[in-house]
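Weekly sync notes, structure subgroup
Attendees: PM, AL, DS (notes)

Item 1: joint prediction request from the bench team. They want all three components modeled as one assembly rather than separately. Inputs as received:
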Amino acid sequence: MTTNISSKTGLLTRIQNYFEDLKPGKFFIYMVLIAWACTTILPLVWVTNNSFRTTSQIVNEPFGTPDSLNLENYQRARDRINVLNSYKNSLIMSGTTVILVLLFGGMAGYVLSRFDFRFKETINMLLVVGFMVPAFVTVVPVYEILIKLDLVNTYLALILPHTAGNLVFATLMLSAYMSSLSSELEEAALLDGATRWQIFTRIFVPLSRPAFATVGIFTFLWSYNDLFLSLVYVSHKKVQPVTVLLSQVSTMYGTDLGLQATAVVVTVIPVLIVYIILQNQIIKGLTQGAVKG
Amino acid sequence: MLSPHSMGVIKIKTRQDKKIIFLFLLPALLMMTIFLFYPIIRSIYKTFFIAVHNINPRYVGLRNYLKLIKDPVITISIKNTFIFMGAVIVFEVGLGILLALFVDMIKYGKQFFKTVYFFPIVMSAASLGLLFRLLYNYNSGLLNSILEYFGYEPVLWLDAGKALLMVMIPTIWQYVGFYFVIILTALTKIPDHLYEVAYLEGASPFQRIIKITLPLIFQDIRVCLILAITGVLKVFDMVWMITQGGPFDSSQVLGTYMYSTVFERRLFGYGSTIAILIIVLGIVVTAITNKILGHRGVTIN
Amino acid sequence: MKKKVLLLLVLALVFSVSVVQAADKVTLRVVTMFAGADPVSEVYQETIEQFMAENPNIEIIDESATFDDSVKVRFENDFAAGNEPDITMYFTDAQAAPIVESGKVVPLDDLIADGVVGEGILPSVLEQVRYEDGNVYAIPITGFYEGLILNVDLFEKYDVDYPTSWEKLVEAIETFKANGVTPMAVGLGIIPHYQIEHSILKVGGAAAHDAGFENGIHPMWVEGLKNIKTLYDMGAFQKDTLTQGWEGARALFKQGEAAMIVEGSWAIADCQNEGANTVTMIAYPKSGPLGNPTDMIAGFTSGMYMSKEAYNDPTRQEAVLKLFKTLTSPAFIKKAAEANGGLPAAKVTPEGLAQPYLDGLKAFQEAEHISLPIDAQIPRPAWTEIVNGIAYICVGRRTPEEVLQAAYDVYLEIEGQ
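Output from the run, pasted for the record:
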C-alpha cells in the first residue's frame, strides 16, 4: 500500500518537475505536435466508430456515435471473404516483396552512393522515369507477360510487379542515406582485403538499418494497399489479398458505408502492426552499436 | 568533422569494380526493365493509335499529340498540377521536416507521435475521400453545421473557386506523415556526439539545426523533394474521390485527367499520350530540381 | 539473413504453384457481377454450391467480382490474350466490343433455335442484346427500368400531386422549394447521372432518343439538354448539384431531404434507406411537345457469354453447357429478379416484391415504347463528352449545341471518318 502511494507521488513529482522544466519553446513544440496528432487520430476514430454502425445510421448522422457495440459489420466482412486466408495471402505477397526490394534496392543503392561511373546519371534518370509510370500503363503489358508465364493467380503474379514498382523508391532512399555515411570503416575494410559484397553486407546494411526499415515499411504499405493490380493479377479467391474487401462494398445498388468502415479497420490493422515493429528499427544509436558488434 | 560529399564516392579503379557495379545493379535494372520500361515503350507505340476499349487500334499518326496541344483541359491540368507542386513542397515536405525535427527534440511521447502520424497514410483513399466529402458537404456537412451553429450562411465548399484548395488540403495532410518518417530516419544517422560538441561550443538549437542537421540530411531532403514533385504529377485518388476534377475541371490535375481519359472515356491511345506527357514533365522538373539543389552534401567523418 | 531470404523465396515459389487442378475433374472458370454488395450474390453462391454438389465431377472456379475499372481491364485482356473464363457475365451494350470482337465467345442463335440453351427466355429480350453483327452472344438474366423515384412521405406532407406532367412537375418543384425541401436530388458534377436520357426522351420522344449519331446531331437532343438548364435555372436541383455525383444525390434523397430523384430500379431499395422513406416510382413526366408520358428507359444490358474454347472441347462441352443452362434457367432468373428487383429475362413472375417495385413494374408494362439508355447506344468517349458538358451548359459557359458538336466530333474521330 505504502509503496503504491510513494510510487504515485514519485510520478506526480516527476510530472511536476517536468512542467517546471518545460521552457516556452518546448511547450510550443508540444502544442504543435499534439495539434497535428489530433488531425491524424480523429479520422481513424471516426472510421472505427462507423464500423459499429449501420449504413442508415451513417447516412443520417455521419458523425454520430454507435448505440451499442454492434458487430454485425464484422460478421458480414467475415461472410464476404475468408479474412484469415486473405491476411495470409497479403502477408506472403507483401512480405516477399519487401525482402526482394530491400535486397535488390540495397545493392543498387550502395553502388549508386559509393561509385562514380559513366552511366550513373542515366540510371538516376531512369529511376525517375520508373517512378513516374502510372499503373494503367504497366497493367496490360505485364498482365500479358504473366499470362504467358502462366503466373496469373499465383503469389508471384503480384510479387514481381510490386518488387519492380517499389525498387525505384528503395534505390533512391537507400542511396541517399548511404551517401552521407562515414567512409572510414569502408576504407579500413578494403585495406583488410574485404570484398565489396562483404563490405555491403557487414558494413552498409547494418549502418543503414533505419533506412532499410523505412523502405521496408513503405514497400509493405504500397504493396499491401494496391487494390488495382491485385484485382487484375490475383482475382482468384484462394490467393486474394485482404484489401479486396474494400472493393466489395459499393455497387450501383448502393454503398454499404458500415461495411466500408469495417473493411478499412480490418485492412489497416496488419499495416499498423508491421509499422510499429519496423519503426523500432528507426532509432538513433543503433548505428554505432551495430558496427561495433 | 564534416567532409565534402565527394570524398565518400569512390572512383573506379579496377576492372574488378566494374564487375561489381554491373552485378549489383543487374537485379534491380532487370526487374525494372521488364515491368516498367518495356510497358512504357509499349505505351509510346500506342500513342500513335486511336483505340477505344483498347481494341481495334487504328493508326492516326501524330493526331493524339496535336489533340494534347489543343486540349484546353490539359492546360488547366498542368496549371493546377504546378500550383499543387508548390503547395506540396512548402507544406507537405516542409511540415514533414518540421514535425520530424520537433519529435527528435522532445523526450516524452516520441513513440506515440511516431505511431499516430502514420495513421493517415495507411487508410484507404476511399474512406478518407468519403470523410472529406462529408466534411465539405453542403447539406449538413460538418463544416457547414459548424457555420450554421454560429449563425453563418452555409458555404459551397467545392465550388469552382475553392475546389482545388479543398482537394489539396487532404492530399497534403495525408502525406505529411510519409515525409515525417523519412526525415526521422535520416536523423538517426547523426551521431549524438556531434550535437554534444555543438552544445559545448554554445550553439543554440536553431544553429545546431542549420549547421549540423540540415547539411547532413541534405541528400535525404533532396530525395523527399524529388518524390514530392514527381508524386504530384501522379496525384489522383484523393482528388478523384472528392471532386473527380470538377466542377468545370477547376480541380483537374494531370493524374485525374489521365485516369478519366483511360477509364471513363476509355481512350487508351490518348490516355497513353497524357502518360508520356507526365513522364516527360517528371524528367524535366527533376532535372531542374537537381540543378537548383546541386549535389552538395556532406558525410560524417 | 541471406539464408532467411532464400528460404522465403523458396516458400513463395512453393505457394505460388499450389493452385493446381485435379486431373480427373472438369474445371470451369466462371465470372459474374454477382459478388460483394450485389443483391444477387447470395442466390448465386447457393446455385453454384448446389451445382457442385450435384455434379461432383465438375469443379467451379468462381472469380466473380464487383465490376470496377480494374475488373474491366482484366476482362478485356483475358479475352485478348486467350485467358478467357468459360462463362462470363458481361455487358451487352456498346461496351461488349472487346469480348465479342475477340472472336472467343459462342454465337448462340443456333443453339437457341435448337432449344439447347435459352429455355424460356423472352424473344424480345434477346433482340435487345443482339450485337451489331446480327448475332446473339449473351443470354441476359435481369434487366432494369429507370424513372422518377418519389419520396411519398414528402409528397403527402406538403400535399403535392405526383408529377405526371410538366405542369405538375413545375408545381411540385415550386412547392417543395417554398418549403425548404430540395425538389430533385441530382448530381450533375460527377458522372454518371440519368437526367440526360430522360430529358431527351421526354422532350424529343423515343425516335429522337434512339437516333444516335448516325445521322448527325438530332435537334431534339439540343432541346433535351436545354430542358436540363431550364430545370437548373428553376432551382429544381440540390444546391450543390454541380459538385455532386450520383452517390451524393442518393445520400441526400436517403436522408429524406429531397422529394424526387431520377434513378433506376436498382436504386429503389437503397432509396428506402432501411425503411426510413416510403418511395414509389413513376415514369418521368413528358417535358416537351414530342415526348410521350408513358415511355420509359429500360432494358437488358448484360448477359452470360460462353467461351468457344470450352464449348468446342469435347471433354468439357457437356459440363459447360450444363452450368450455362443452370445459370440462365428460368428458375435462377426468377431468384435473381426477386433478389435485385430487376426485370426477369425469362417468362417468370418474381414473388414477394415490395410495393415500389410493383409500381415501377406497372409503369414499365404500361409504357408505349422502351428505349435503352443513350450511353448503351453511342460509343463511350462520345457519351462522356456529353456528360462532362452538362455542368458547363447549366451555368451558361457552353451551349448545348457546342457540347453536342464536341461529342459528335469525338464520334466521327473514333469511327474513323
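Discussion: Residues 18-22 of chain C have pLDDT under 50 and may be disordered.
Action: AL to compare against the crosslinking data before next sync.
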